[in-house]
Specification:
The chain is an alpha+beta fold. It folds into three domains: 40-381, no CATH class; 393-570, Immunoglobulin-like (Sandwich); 573-593 and 620-702, no CATH class. The protein contains eleven helices and 35 strands. The strands form eight sheets. Strands 1, 2, 5, 6, 7, 8, 9, 10, 11, 16 and 17 form an eleven-stranded mixed sheet that branches. The protein is elongated and about 90 Å long.
């Protein structure tokens, strides 16, 4: 964590910046640079209506969905000579009109354009909802869109593009759909992000093909994480894929929105159900485990289409709305924790959405294609579509840290997949994005240094620096593409360095004896990271010259307060002292086995080059005693190496480190002999620590810095 992150954030400044996004950072709006597309013209009214009727989609909503596609015109008003729709009027008016399970004015708006001198047309289906409530954002008003690209010569559909959460999250897209099928949209609860359904199971999302079921998207595969290499990169529909999402309650002026005097028709029951809602990520001490999965509720279809549906909607040209100049509403709020020293909060949400007709994708639907291969396919077929541009992507998989069964109690961890989705935020872009299937993806990231923060209900937040290089690359965040989060009730903050530190740190990494490396980030002098209190850690530090230091950290489960390495150092002395600590920790654990015959504690002579053979001549009563004495010999030699290094005696320090390495080999032999008498968990821990001590001893020997 940088010194900049430690400084207190000005909440009002952040909110103002977010509010200024307006109509740019709306759901599905692309910010990718690309070759110029051709100009479009409006399709004449009769042809537009025919296209809209032919491709009018069916919509499948969650059983808990409160806000269905409706007509905003009843909630419009005149302000300073302009027609606007205010958030209070639309939100309250919608719920005032909603009665007996019948959503008011079910309506879908359409807009059709064709590219000049090209047989390519696009019919868009715009859906307006009075409110958006989600796990990463909420705002007054919500617009979602489905683009259907059609060849006017063959009359065949070429591409479906269904809008996802934002310009940084890949849309759900399908290339070359069946000509005779009706497009189907699976709307995400509360946020209305649009997943596609093209297979035989109409109300379920299928990310990859299985047996006779087609995949519902043709997005390209995820890059950068080996075991996810076959997963298409698209938001999809997480709650339909086995994941769970906790929803948050929007607040205005410090109170839940349903308590506001301007919303008399809005009650707590008007929002997402309590079953799926948490008041804040920070309030939970552990992740929620009882969130219900998605179930299909109301089904909408166009009134001219045959088939069973709960609600029939009207198709209305969007031109009938273009007199509306703005959809307005004051800033809403919720907490999004950033793991810095002051535990401040950063808002990652929008004030409201813009008007569709003010967005580039309204006249140029190709601007919303988020999959480069899909744009390339259309560019090969139609001169009007420009070639795709390289896209920088940051990707990681979010997992959960738990204690390892093969480790001693509270001395080892492992990581596991989690079904609870998280939110990710690049702090250079104040728009949080949700994970899907535990995968965090941010697209269209500028080259340079960024800070990635990941947060999840009931878990301590994670933050790290991410360096994005040249255009068109995939940057893998975390360690080997994994960011493990820790439940709040098991989280301890590990603070490394402060303003008094003699070493200017450039990087920090944290390894657990069993789980391996869990955290790694460049830093600017100091850092802080949450670790599981059931782990046993090696904290590695590096300075600007790439010199290495290491520190042993064993959090006390249940203890309050942070663990601090106040003045970290790098070089031979730091590394040798780490070997002292980890070897003594292991020796004490072996001694605690209670072998009453465990005699002496290792060599007692003062000769720096004393032969370790005296260990055998004393005669060990059993293998456990031999193991303890071998570890004590390592402690002795490593302590001497550290002392020589601090005295500036490089030659003798290196000779003692050679002795340390020799004695570590003896420990390995003694451990093998004692396996039948040492509990398996301690044997496992000893083996892991031995590997760590050997690696750090070798680093110490190679270090030029004392």
């Amino acid at each position: 964590m940088t010194d900049d992150a430690v400084a207190e954030l000005d909440r009002r400044t952040v909110l103002s910046a977010v509010a200024g996004l307006g109509g740019v950072a709306v759901a599905g709006c692309s910010a990718f640079e690309r070759e110029t597309d051709g100009q479009t013209t409006q399709v004449d009214a009769d042809r537009a209506r025919a296209l809209a009727t032919r491709f009018a989609p069916s919509f499948y909503f969650d059983t808990h969905e409160p806000w269905f596609p409706t007509d905003p015109r009843p909630y419009s008003s005149e302000r300073d000579g302009e027609t606007v729709v205010t958030g209070f009027d639309a939100f309250d008016g919608y719920h005032e009109r909603y009665s007996d399970g019948e959503p008011p004015n079910p309506t879908v708006f359409y807009h059709a354009v064709e590219y000049e001198e090209s047989p390519l047309a696009v019919v868009q289906f715009w859906c307006y909802s009075a409110f958006d409530q989600f796990t990463t954002n909420f705002h007054w008003h919500d617009w979602e869109v489905l683009h259907v690209f059609v060849d006017t010569e063959t009359e065949g559909p070429q591409l479906y593009v269904a809008s996802s959460h934002s310009r940084t999250v890949p849309n759900n897209e399908f290339l070359d759909p069946e000509p005779d099928m009706t497009p189907r949209i699976l709307s995400e609860l509360g946020s209305h992000s649009s997943a596609l359904s093209v297979n035989d199971v109409a109300d379920r999302f299928q990310r990859v093909a299985v047996e006779d079921l087609l995949a519902d998207i043709t997005n390209t595969a995820l890059e950068g994480i080996e075991d996810l290499a076959d997963i298409p990169l698209a938001y999809g529909l997480p709650r339909d894929e086995g994941s769970t999402l906790p929803y948050l309650v929007p607040e205005y002026e410090g109170q839940p929105i349903y308590d506001h005097e301007k919303l008399p028709s809005v009650t707590r029951e008007s929002l997402i159900t309590d079953e799926l809602t948490v008041r804040s990520f920070d309030a939970l001490t552990s992740p929620p485990t009882d969130l219900p999965a998605r179930e299909t509720g109301l089904v909408f279809q166009h009134r001219d289409r045959t088939g069973e549906a709960d609600i029939e909607y009207e198709l209305v040209p969007s031109a009938d709305l273009e007199h509306i100049t703005a959809f307005t509403g004051p800033q809403l709020s919720f907490e999004f924790s950033v793991p810095d020293q002051v535990e401040d909060a950063l808002a990652g949400h929008l004030t409201t959405t813009g008007t569709p007709w003010s967005q580039p994708r309204y006249e140029n639907p190709a601007a919303d294609i988020s999959v480069p291969t899909h744009r390339t396919a259309l560019a090969d077929r139609y001169d009007a579509i420009g070639e795709a541009a390289p896209i920088n992507t940051v990707v990681s998989r979010v997992t959960e840290t738990i204690t390892a069964e093969d480790a001693p109690a509270d001395e080892g961890l492992t990581t596991t997949d989690t079904s609870l989705e998280a939110v990710a935020l690049l702090e250079s872009d104040p728009e949080a994005v949700p994970t899907f299937g535990g995968v965090a993806v941010v697209q269209g990231v500028p080259a340079g240094d960024h800070r990635l923060t990941v947060n999840s209900a009931g878990r301590a937040p994670h933050s790290e620096r991410v360096s994005v290089s040249a255009a068109g690359t995939t940057t893998v965040a975390g360690v080997d593409g994994e960011i493990p989060l820790v439940a709040r009730d098991r989280a301890t903050k590990l603070e490394v360095g402060d303003e008094t530190a003699a070493t200017d740190l450039a990087a920090v990494a944290v390894e657990d004896d069993f789980a391996g490396r869990l955290y790694e980030s460049s830093v600017d002098g100091s850092d802080a990271v949450y670790v599981h209190d059931g782990g046993a850690y090696t904290t590695e530090v590096r300075d600007g010259d790439d010199a290495i230091g290491a520190y042993r950290v064993n959090p006390d489960p249940g203890a309050k307060g942070a663990v601090r390495i106040e003045r970290p150092e790098t070089g031979k002395a730091s590394l040798a002292e780490f070997v002292v600590d980890v070897a003594e920790e292991t020796r004490a654990a072996v001694a605690a086995l209670g072998d009453d015959e465990a005699g002496g504690s290792g060599p007692t002579d003062d000769d720096d080059t004393a032969d370790d053979a005296t260990d055998e001549s004393r005669g060990s009563s059993n293998a456990v005693t031999g193991l303890e004495r071998a570890l004590a010999a390592v402690v002795d030699a490593a302590r001497r190496a550290a002392e020589r290094a601090r005295d500036g005696d490089r030659g003798n320090a290196d000779r003692q480190l050679e002795t340390v390495l020799e004695r570590l080999e003896r420990v390995s032999e003694r451990l093998a002999e004692a396996r039948d008498e040492v509990p398996e968990s301690l044997s496992n821990a000893s083996e892991n620590r031995l590997e760590q001590a050997t690696r750090r001893s070798e680093q110490a020997k190679e270090a030029t810095k004392l």
